[in-house]
Amino acid sequence: MKEQTTNIVPRPDLAALDPGSRVEVEVEGRVWLLDRAADMEALWDAMDDADLDDDERLPYWAEVWPASVLLGRHILRNQDMLKGKPCLDLGCGLGLTGMIASSIGAQVVAFDYELPAVRFAHHNAQLNDVPQPLWMLMDWRQPALQRGAFDFIWGGDVLYEKRFFEPLIQLFRHALAPGGKIWIGEPVRTVSRPVWDELRDEGFAPEKLTVEKVALSGLNMTVNLWEITIP
């Protein structure tokens, strides 16, 4: 990884965190505790005009998304494959998939665009007593990553806007190691449908591995899990 210390978040002052709520998420028999400042709705209400610039810094990081739960299942089901391997977690949010992968021995780099997400992810890894991934504050449009560094890359519900397709495709091409795999959890969003053809046009091979129900917040949601490779 490039030496860009401004992008690497040092150990935060955990005493300065003020968790407003805790979410309990069950993945393959283990319950994970996820602290956050507040739920997304409350954080949204607290936003001002400065947050609604071209980047639209919306507090999606404060939610636990069903796509991440399915990714967590897949990581655990493939733990022998991931153990000791360099892995990249896109848009880590509260840290669920990064923590799960780190708990089974993967060498995880996990990043988010929002500093509160990275700080709470670090806090949550400590809360769940798992080895800390390398948490980074990073914009996927400007990845501070070594070329071909990761055998596995994953992201939960990261294709919810078309403007993300091109930078993510470029990130995949840059960061994926030869023979590597990309896993995307995708909650059957209409907006995501064109990206699979775009990936094929760019020389990738996307394949839908499974479709499963995820029970979260009292609802059963349908989630696709895709695997993307470069033939």
- Widest sheet: strand order? 5-4-3-6-7-9-8
- Global Rg: 17 Å
Name the CATH architecture: 3-Layer(aba) Sandwich
Low-pLDDT windows of residues:
1-15
Global shape: globular
Q: What's the SSE pattern? A: EEHHHEHEHEEHEHEE
The proportion of strand residues reads: 25-35%
User: How can the largest sheet be summarized?
Assistant: 7 strands, mixed
Give the tally of structural domains: 1
- The overall strand count is 9
Can you describe what's shown?
- The protein is α/β, with parallel strands linked by helices.
- Helix content is 27%, strand content 30%.
- 38% of the residues are buried.
- The strands form 2 sheets. The chain has a 7-stranded mixed β-sheet. A two-stranded antiparallel sheet has the order 1-2.
- It starts with 20 loop residues before the first strand and ends with a strand.
- It has a single domain, classed as Rossmann fold (3-Layer(aba) Sandwich).
- The chain has helices spanning 40-45, 66-77, 79-82, 96-103, 115-127, 165-175, 193-201, and strands at residues 21-27, 30-36, 86-90, 107-112, 134-137, 150-156, 176-186, 205-216, 219-229.
- It has 7 helices and 9 strands.
